[in-house]
Each structure stands twice: as structure tokens, then as C-alpha cells.
Design goal:
The complex is a heterodimer of chains A (163) and B (598). Chain A has 163 residues and is mainly beta. Chain A contains 2 helices and 10 strands, in the order H-H-E-E-E-E-E-E-E-E-E-E. Chain B is 14% helix and 33% strand. In chain B, 52% of the residues are buried.
Chain lengths: 163, 598
């Protein structure tokens, strides 16, 4: 089963919902549906607290990209990595990934929180969004909480479909 | 090995050419001739045919054969299909060409690889690991034991340039998956591994060549089926009495059925209960894997001798699972006690035996009475006894979110002796290993007597008994094969043929009781190895994909074997694709049915 396949089935049962927002309203755990196959998509993880979060993206092929496997065979890749050493003193912290010519299928975003960078913060809020790279149009997003030493396994899922 | 099409000279040769040299070509055969630029035939070249053809419910097989001493090979292929043909031999550059449907002969030119880096990159991971200098032998064996549980070390993806912080995060992830890397090594390893990888990357010529392929590959054939996907882990494989092959996708709760004669596949989704949690009920170990789709954690499988039902261990749900092939139905048995059912074997009396890796037990399910019996194994210390006694509470707290991975870990993993492999001897008694306590154990089901035997080596992983009752054990951390004679209670150690000596990490093995062979997984060397017990000789069969992390092997009646590439994660595999692999040696008796051996 691909990541969240069960959720895909749920999504298919409510596939009359035309947009990510309405699908999410109908089923909060259903993956967002994006008519963006073959487009270049960007997934952005952002957070305010001075800690090191790690973005993981699993694509339809089942391959996961993250700091330990920066580029998938099908091309999606991590753009930038934030670490305790590179953490900016203020402002939003970011990690992002690009999906060139996005293949249709289900994508899962996971977020890990391993190092608190000396902040002592146990829990924090983060958000993930994804945009069409060429139009800069935001296609969806979600905010969630993460906890130290816990992988947010399914922080966000979206299904890319053919237009 | 890189896939270069440069320097390729392709001749389409006539039947007449092969006729002159007496090479018989069948209508469905592809004849291949491999030579150097100077025209010298290249023997023992691996030639692999792959097709992009896809059909729902079928896995299109990939075919591999080898050239003989005259540089000639042949593969029987389905007619009317286009293929990609790859030629591979250590010391040469890969050649890959497209082969249109209907072509029945081809000649390829191989070029010697002269670039030291490319050569080193083409070598299997064990050759790189052999050159790692990590403090001392003991430390390195501990590293090999704990850091090669799920995937190979020494591969390109492991050697990627990383910071110490990144290595610390990776080690943290591995601990959450269940690695028992001792606390001391957790602290030292990031700096050590970075320095060693840098040293080796700067000196590729220091990486030793692997063992050359020898004559046993000539006329051997390998068939491989792509099953599962990039988030799968094809852990154990089983050949049933019906001739169907079953492989368990540990990360997606799929029992995949393959008919090796037709390529037909059926994926049976193992059901879970409504209140089961993603990643499993016992601590959510696999919830830390981003692509996780498991609630059950299918690990090992065996077949009932009475009705052909399969019994599966659901490790991460602490559940025994029964599968009825005739109806496709599953029965779930929640275990009344204990944690992490692991390797499973069904005895002649239809009793289902399995190791309980975390709760330090051997379990037996009596199908006639539907009762479970648990054998508590001895502990090594008071602390270990207390830890195991407190497991139900620890697991409950872990499920509620308590961290267990950051507790101190000793070199011998005190608290987790880890009962692991298991097998039934011809006399009906039960043998098992304990990976972290360096022991094998024996249970007499009739008397309940339990005996433990200390192994003279680190990390006995899986075991099998032979027809005479000897116990064969894969010596994981130091790359050897061991035999235990129950009569003399003596261990005999055998070097594996993998070069450099001792550099493999053999995960498992199987015994061909009819022929007196022991098959061993070359888990770090991309090989399967066959030991002829009487002749004291080895035959080595290289696998088509690099980073083939095989964990199990099953022998067929005809003398062939099945194994699966269960690298976790799958993207370590050369093309990221898990597979089931069937190796037919030249001396297999193809007149016998392709069903499980005795």
C-alpha cells in the first residue's frame, strides 16, 4: 500500500469535492486533491520557534526524501535544510522541497523534531504549504503541532491528479 | 556500476554465425555473445533482460543468465516483447541496450573499467565496509551488528557527505526504529564514520575487488519479479507446497502471492482491528518511518502440513495471523502475553512455534486445542529480569508517547537478549538463537526441558537444522557460517567465500536436506552462497541488483531457491525496487516440481 492508501480510498468516496479545502472540510484526514500533475510544485515547511525541524516528503513511488536522501530517483528533492548551526536568530525558519513535473499520485509530508537547539521547547506549531512554482499560487496547506523526539508521520497528505 | 551506452558496438548476428560455432538457438531463445574490443570472449558476464511491460495482476519477470567460457550465453524469453539487455561483470563498464521484440541474437562489447573510483563504486558494499577502521574489532562488529539490521553499510547512500549533526539525527532515527547501538558508540560513531568515509572516498583504489564470479554461474539462471514499491519491505519469503510463493511486505501489511510459473500476483491485505495504531501497537516503532502503512508488521511465515494454511507473525501488533489460501481469509490471534512475535516454524504435529523477540520467550500455538504455551527464557542479570518483567508497563507507556529509545544501551543490549531465528529439528525438538546474548537454545516439547548454549561468536542470527540434526547458524557480525553438533555440543566455524574474508553479514540460511547443501544469504555482498557440506566447497551466485539486502531463503524441491530483496528502506536498492528472486543452479533437477523442499 502506498502511504495513506486507505486515506486515498476515503478521498475517492468523496471525490465530488472539487477543491482541497472542501475535501478537508468533509474529511479532516482526507488528503487534499490538487489538479497539478506535470506542474512544478513546492512544499514548504515553516515554523517560528528556534529549533531544528526536518521535512520528509514521500512520493507516489514510495521513496522518501529528507536530509539523509536529498533527491528521489523521480526527481523530487530537498531544496534547503535548516540545522541548529544555521538557524536564523529571528523570523520564520524554513525547509522546502521541489517536485518537478509532479507525477500523479499521493504525497505524504512528515515532520521530525530531533534537536531543540538548546531552546528547551518540547512542543511547537509548524505549518506546511504547497504551491505551484510557476504561478506562485498556493494550492493547500495545514498547521499542526510537533513534539520533541516524535515524528509527525502524517503531517499532511495531498493527491496530485491530472488536470 | 554505471550504465554507459558509450563504446557499445552492437552487431545483429545471424543464426548462421552461431551455427558455425555450434551454439543451438531455440525459437524463444536470445543468444548473446560478449567480447572485448579486441574480440576476446568475456566469460561469466551477467546478462539481464528487463521489460517495461506492465499488466495488472502480473509481475513481468526479469531474466538473468551468464556467459560461458566462450563468452556466450542464452536466455529463454517470451516472444513478442521488447526488452532492455544489460551486461555486467566486475572490472568492466556496464553495457545496456534496447532489444526490440523478435530479436534472437546479439553481440556486445565490454570495455574494461580503468577509473579507480568507478571500479570501487561498482563493488558490493561489503568491500567498502571491510576497509572501515572503527576503533577496534569489537567496536566494528558491534557496529556491523547494530547498523546492518535493515540495510547495507558501505553503500553510496550511506557514504554521502554528512555533518556530525546529520549523523546524530540519523542515529536517533535508527534507535527509534529499534537499533541497539550501545550508548558509547552513539557518541563516537558520527565523527568516526565521517572521517572513515572521507578517507575511503579519497582513496578508492584502497577498496579491494570482490570475489570473482566462478564457473558455477555458467548455466545458472536467475528470475526476478518486481513486487511492492518504494515504501515496501519484502522481509521473508516462502515457497508453499502448492508451488505459490508468498512474501511479506512488513511495512504495508501486504501478503503478496506470486505464481512463479505465470507471474500472476495477488496482494492480500492483512486486516487490522479498528483500534490498532499506524506503526503498530507495541511502541509504534515503525511510526517513525515516513512511508509507513503497517498496523500488523508481517515478519515471518510458514505453512501448516495438514491444511496448507499459512501462519504469519505480526511483529508490531504482537499477533499471530493465519491465512487460508483457499478462501483468502485471515484469522487474527491476539497473543495472551508477550511482545514481538518474530520468526515462525510449524512442526509436523501442526504446532506453530515462534520466537518472541522483545519479551524473551518462545511461543507455541497448538492448533488442535487453540492454546498458546510460552517458554520464558533465562535472563542474564537481575536488571534484565526486571526490565522484561516491566515490559507490559513499558509498552503501555511507549504507546502513550514515552520515549524508550534514549535509555542507556549496553554493548550486549542488556534487557533485550532478542530470541530470533527458530527451526524444528528432524526429531521434533526446537532450536532457536538469541541474537544479543550470543546463544542458541533448545526446547524439547515433550519434556519442556530448555537448554542454552553460548556461541563462540557474536550475533547468531537465524538457524536451520539439517537432516542429521546438526544446527546451522548464520554468524552475522563476523561474516561466517557455524555448525553446532548437538551430540558433542561443539561449534564448527566456516569462512564464507565472500572476499575480503569475514566482510559479509549473512542474515539467514536454509538447508537443502536432500542434497546436503546449506544456502546462506550474502546480505552485504549481493550474493547467495551454497555450501556443499560433504565436499566442503562453496558456490556463489551474484544477484542482479546491487544493494540486495536479503533476509531469508527457501529451498525448492528441484534444488533452486527463492529469496527476496528486503532492504529497508527500499531506496537503497540499485533501482529502488524490492524483488523476489529465484536462482536455479545448473545442477538443479528441473524435472522435479517447483514446490518447497523437505
Amino acid at each position: 500500500m502506498k502511504p495513506g492508501q486507505k486515506l486515498v480510498l476515503i478521498a475517492l468516496t468523496c471525490c465530488l469535492a472539487p477543491t482541497a479545502a472542501t475535501a478537508q472540510e468533509a474529511h479532516p484526514n482526507a488528503p487534499a486533491v490538487v489538479q497539478g500533475a506535470s506542474e512544478d510544485l513546492v512544499v514548504l515547511l515553516s515554523w517560528q520557534a528556534p529549533v531544528d525541524l526536518d521535512l520528509f516528503l514521500t512520493g507516489p513511488s514510495g521513496e522518501t526524501i529528507y536530509f539523509g536522501n536529498r533527491k528521489a530517483r523521480t526527481g523530487y528533492h530537498i531544496n534547503n535544510e535548516t540545522t541548529c548551526d544555521t538557524l536564523a536568530p529571528t523570523g520564520l525558519h524554513r525547509e522546502s522541497a521541489t517536485i518537478p513535473h509532479a507525477a500523479a499520485g499521493l504525497y505524504r509530508v512528515s515532520v521530525d523534531y530531533i534537536f531543540d537547539c538548546g531552546s528547551g521547547i518540547e512542543d511547537l506549531n509548524a505549518s506546511v504549504s504547497f504551491t505551484n512554482k510557476s504561478t506562485s499560487k498556493t494550492l493547500g496547506g495545514k498547521s499542526f503541532s510537533v513534539s520533541l523526539q516524535k515524528l509527525k508521520t502524517v503531517a499532511w497528505e495531498f493527491e496530485v491528479q491530472q488536470k | 556500476m554505471k550504465h554507459l551506452k558509450a563504446y557499445l558496438i552492437l552487431w545483429i548476428l545471424s543464426f548462421a554465425f552461431f551455427g558455425i560455432t555450434g551454439f543451438a538457438v531455440q525459437a524463444a531463445d536470445l543468444a548473446v555473445l560478449v567480447a572485448t574490443k579486441q574480440g576476446t570472449p568475456v566469460p561469466r558476464v551477467m546478462i539481464t533482460l528487463r521489460s517495461e511491460f506492465e499488466k495488472e495482476g502480473f509481475a513481468v519477470p526479469e531474466y538473468t543468465a551468464f556467459t560461458n567460457g566462450e563468452g556466450r550465453g542464452k536466455i529463454q524469453i517470451p516472444e513478442g516483447m521488447a526488452f532492455t539487455l544489460r551486461a555486467r561483470k566486475s572490472g568492466f563498464t556496464d553495457v545496456e541496450i534496447d532489444l526490440p521484440a523478435g530479436q534472437n541474437a546479439v553481440a556486445l562489447e565490454l570495455l574494461a573499467e580503468t577509473d579507480a573510483r568507478e571500479l570501487a563504486e561498482s563493488y558490493p558494499a561489503n568491500t567498502w565496509v571491510s576497509q572501515l577502521e572503527l576503533q577496534d574489532t569489537r567496536f566494528k562488529e558491534h557496529f556491523r551488528l547494530q547498523c546492518s539490521f535493515c540495510h547495507q553499510q558501505g553503500s553510496p547512500i550511506v557514504r554521502v557527505d554528512r555533518t556530525e549533526e546529520e549523523w546524530e539525527k540519523i542515529i536517533n532515527r535508527m534507535l527509534r526504529y529499534g537499533s541497539r547501538l550501545m550508548t558509547d558508540a552513539q557518541e563516537k560513531l558520527p565523527a568516526l564514520i565521517i572521517a572513515e568515509h572521507k578517507r575511503l572516498e579519497a582513496n578508492p583504489a584502497s577498496i579491494p575487488a570482490p570475489r570473482p564470479w566462478t564457473e558455477e554461474v555458467e548455466h545458472a539462471t536467475i528470475t526476478e519479479w518486481k513486487l511492492g514499491e518504494g515504501s515496501s519491505q519484502l522481509h521473508d519469503v516462502f515457497l508453499s507446497d502448492s508451488g505459490l510463493v508468498y512474501v511479506g511486505d512488513n511495512l504495508q501489511d501486504n501478503l503478496i502471492e506470486l505464481d512463479p510459473k505465470t507471474g500472476r500476483t495477488v496482494t492480500h491485505k492483512i486486516p487490522h482491528r479498528a483500534d490498532d495504531t499506524l506503526g503498530g501497537n507495541i511502541g509504534g516503532r515503525l511510526k517513525n518511518y515516513p512511508g509507513v502503512g503497517t498496523y500488523v508488521g508481517l515478519h515471518s511465515l510458514d505453512e501448516s502440513p495438514t491444511d496448507g494454511h499459512l501462519f504469519l507473525t505480526g511483529s508490531d501488533s504482537s499477533r499471530l495471523v493465519e491465512f487460508a489460501p483457499e478462501s483468502g481469509e485471515f484469522i487474527l490471534y491476539d497473543l495472551p502475553q508477550g511482545f514481538y512475535p518474530h520468526t515462525i516454524r510449524v512442526d509436523a504435529k501442526d504446532r506453530v512455534w515462534f520466537t518472541m523477540a522483545v519479551s524473551n520467550q518462545i511461543a507455541m500455538f497448538n492448533r488442535k486445542t487453540a492454546d498458546f504455551t510460552f517458554y520464558d527464557l533465562p535472563t542474564r542479570s537481575f536488571k534484565e529480569k526486571m526490565t522484561i518483567t516491566a515490559l507490559p508497563l513499558i509498552m503501555k507507556l511507549a504507546k502513550m508517547g514515552m520515549d524508550t529509545h534514549d535509555m542507556a544501551i549496553s554493548e550486549n543490549s542488556e534487557g533485550l537478549p532478542l530470541p530470533y531465528g527458530i527451526d524444528i529439528a528432524p526429531d521434533g525438538t526446537v532450536w532457536f538463537t538469541r541474537l544479543h546474548s550470543d546463544e542458541i537454545g533448545h526446547i524439547d516439547p515433550e519434556t519442556g526441558e530448555l537448554n542454552m548454549y553460548k556461541t563462540p561468536f557474536l550475533g547468531p542470527r537465524r538457524l536451520r537444522t539439517d537432516g542429521e540434526g546438526n544446527v546451522w547458524i548464520s554468524v552475522f557480525a563476523s561474516g561466517r557460517l557455524a555448525k553446532f553438533d548437538p551430540e558433542t555440543e561443539k561449534f564448527t566455524l566456516f569462512d564464507l567465500p565472500t572476499l575480503p574474508l569475514g566482510s559479509d553479514t549473512p542474515y539467514s540460511l536454509a538447508v537443502d536436506k536432500v542434497r546436503g547443501h546449506v544456502w546462506v544469504n550474502g546480505t552485504a555482498s549481493d550474493t547467495m552462497m551454497r555450501f556443499d557440506v560433504k565436499k566442503n566447497t562453496w558456490a556463489v551466485f551474484p544477484l542482479p541488483r546491487m544493494r540486495s539486502f536479503t533476509r531469508d531463503v527457501v529451498v525448492a524441491k528441484d534444488g533452486s531457491i527463492f529469496t527476496s530483496n528486503g532492504s529497508f528502506p527500499a531506496w537503497h536498492i540499485e533501482d529502488g525496487q524490492p524483488t523476489v528472486i529465484h536462482i536455479t543452479p545448473a545442477d538443479a533437477n528441473k524435472s522435479l516440481p517447483l514446490v518447497k523442499s523437505e
